[in-house]
């Protein structure tokens, strides 16, 4: 039965870290002035009560991983660090000048690229510079992505001293053949050392990222990777499907052939095997593609109904405003999105002219805001209301028609008050959200824009 559902629902679809999704942004009506106004409005409404989130993109890597779809710049020249840190602090200063009051930072995350490409001294200068013109929320959370082979004790100690308590390591798979195919060589011993070092220093949440559906990957590889993960017992795991999007400019997904990838049916089996072993160990599935121990804040936020999803993925708390610093980052004011230029040189050029380095965005209308709430409810809580006045929209009957087939397949239950995803339907949450995606439904793409849902 599951195989037939996989065949039926394995289509290209968004991962819904936003709504509207980027390909459906209305670029014609967007302007830098409108974006700034939306961010100022959001800041004035929420800074004191919620604070804001910061995502900082550090794009440099010494080598290219063939599975990666992120914006990156490959170089071994660490002289690039100083100029980039200067630019990040300049961008933050331009944002700071917009606000009437000091930002209260609730969440700060360093992503990449490889954040630990930067020296501990460079990272110290970056974070110190950001905090110089901000306050910290009472329960703030700082986190970063670390590469197991180059995250040193000095990296961990410097960031810990600055307030970081969560680190995630990209593991992907421990099998040597898979690692060679994706150009990501790292041993279990590397990951073990990096994990134990973080805990020794005092980090309270250590995460691992594991990917299924990689080239040459088998069910046995997944089981072996999960069993090795069991030895280290990270506090949370991102266990997600490889997104094969080689048509996107600037990523390295050309190091293998399509024929080297597992079929959709095999990918689903890999996920089920991994999930079974993780649950036997004591992990609980949180939202889509994430697992956590009951002691981790991600699980606790799910239980308390505070789980949130944005361009950083799932987060343990919500802020209305999220500012992205660095090349290609996306910012979210709740009322609008903006994305920075993708090239380092263009980024520097605009900042040198005291211009926020934004090249596209979208201002949400009333319909967008309503659909966004429904999709967030489904992605974070696996249910949404259909009767609340603020969640009603005129195309709801058409959405329910699209969901009827999924209800017949046992993926969800539709009642007079709610639409609730079943356990059986949780693996198909992206497909369920697509039924609500009015922009996608009105304008089906003629070429493939998204990865496959399974």
List the helices and strands and how they pair.
Blueprint: H1 2-9, H2 32-46, E1 52-58, E2 60-61, E3 73-74, H3 80-96, E4 104-112, H4 120-131, E5 135-146, H5 153-161, E6 164-172, H6 176-182, H7 188-201, E7 205-212, H8 219-232, E8 236-241, H9 264-281, E9 284-286, E10 290-292, H10 297-304, E11 308-310, E12 313-315, E13 322-325, E14 330-332, E15 336-340, H11 344-352, E16 358-363, H12 366-381, E17 383-385, H13 396-408, E18 412-414, E19 418-421, H14 429-436, H15 438-442
Parallel strand pairs: 1-4, 1-13, 2-3, 4-5, 5-6, 6-7, 7-8
Antiparallel strand pairs: 8-10, 9-10, 11-12, 14-15, 15-16, 17-19, 18-19
Considering the protein shown, what is the CATH homologous superfamily of the largest domain? tm_1862 like domain
- Tell me the major beta sheet: 9 strands, mixed
DSSP summary, beta strand count: 19
Instruction: Determine and state the CATH class of the largest domain.
Output: Alpha Beta
> End-to-end span in angstroms?
15 Å
Low-confidence stretches: none
State the domain count.
2
Strand content: 15-25%
Q: What structural category arises from helix and sheet content?
A: alpha/beta
Helix count, per DSSP?
15
Strand order of the largest sheet: 9-10-8-7-6-5-4-1-13
Q: What's the overall average pLDDT, rounded?
A: 91
CATH third-level topology of the largest domain: pyruvate-formate lyase- activating enzyme
Looking at the overall shape, the CATH architecture of the largest domain is Alpha-Beta Horseshoe
Q: Characterize the overall form.
A: globular
Rg from alpha-carbon coordinates: 21 Å
What is the helical fraction, as a range of percent?
Answer: 25-40%
């Amino acid at each position: 039965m599951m195989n037939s559902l996989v065949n039926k629902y394995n289509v290209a679809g968004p991962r819904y870290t936003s709504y509207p999704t980027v390909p459906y942004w209305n670029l014609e009506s967007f302007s830098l002035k409108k974006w700034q106004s939306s961010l100022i409005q959001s800041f004035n409404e929420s800074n004191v009560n919620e604070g804001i989130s910061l995502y900082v993109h550090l794009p440099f890597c010494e080598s290219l991983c063939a599975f990666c779809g992120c914006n990156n710049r490959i170089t071994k020249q660490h002289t690039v660090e100083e100029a980039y840190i200067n630019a990040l602090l300049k961008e933050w200063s331009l944002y700071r000048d917009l606000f009437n009051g000091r930002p209260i930072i609730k969440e700060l995350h360093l992503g990449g690229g490889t954040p630990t490409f930067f020296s501990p001294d460079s990272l110290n200068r970056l974070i110190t510079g950001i905090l110089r013109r901000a306050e910290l929320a009472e329960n703030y959370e700082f986190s970063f992505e670390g590469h197991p082979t180059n995250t040193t004790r000095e990296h961990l100690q410097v960031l810990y001293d600055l307030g970081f308590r969560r680190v995630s390591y990209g593991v992907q798979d421990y099998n040597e053949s898979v690692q060679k195919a994706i150009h990501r060589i790292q041993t279990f011993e590397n990951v073990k050392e990096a994990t134990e070092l973080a805990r020794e220093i005092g980090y309270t949440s250590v995460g691992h990222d594991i990917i299924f559906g990689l080239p040459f990957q088998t069910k046995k590889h997944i089981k072996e990777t999960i069993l090795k993960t069991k030895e280290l017992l990270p506090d949370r795991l991102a266990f997600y499907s490889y997104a094969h999007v080689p048509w996107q400019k600037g990523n390295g997904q050309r190091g293998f052939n399509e024929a080297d990838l597992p079929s959709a049916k095999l990918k689903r089996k890999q996920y089920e095997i991994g999930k079974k072993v993780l649950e036997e160990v004591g992990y609980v599935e949180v939202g889509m593609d994430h697992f956590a121990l009951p002691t981790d804040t991600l699980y606790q936020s799910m239980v308390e109904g505070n789980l949130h999803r944005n361009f950083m993925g799932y987060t343990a708390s919500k802020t209305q405003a999220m500012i992205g610093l660095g090349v290609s980052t996306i910012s979210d004011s709740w009322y609008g999105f903006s994305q920075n230029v993708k090239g380092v040189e263009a980024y520097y050029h605009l900042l040198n002219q005291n211009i926020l380095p934004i090249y596209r965005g979208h201002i949400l209308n009333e319909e967008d805001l309503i659909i966004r709430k429904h999709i967030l409810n489904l992605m974070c809580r696996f249910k949404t209301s259909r009767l609340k006045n603020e969640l009603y929209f005129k195309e709801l009957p058409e959405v329910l028609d699209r969901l009827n087939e999924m209800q017949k397949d046992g993926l969800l239950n539709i009642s007079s008050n709610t639409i609730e995803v079943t356990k059986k339907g949780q693996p198909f949450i992206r497909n369920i959200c697509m039924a609500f995606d009015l922009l996608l439904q009105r304008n089906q793409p003629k070429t493939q824009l998204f990865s496959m849902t399974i």
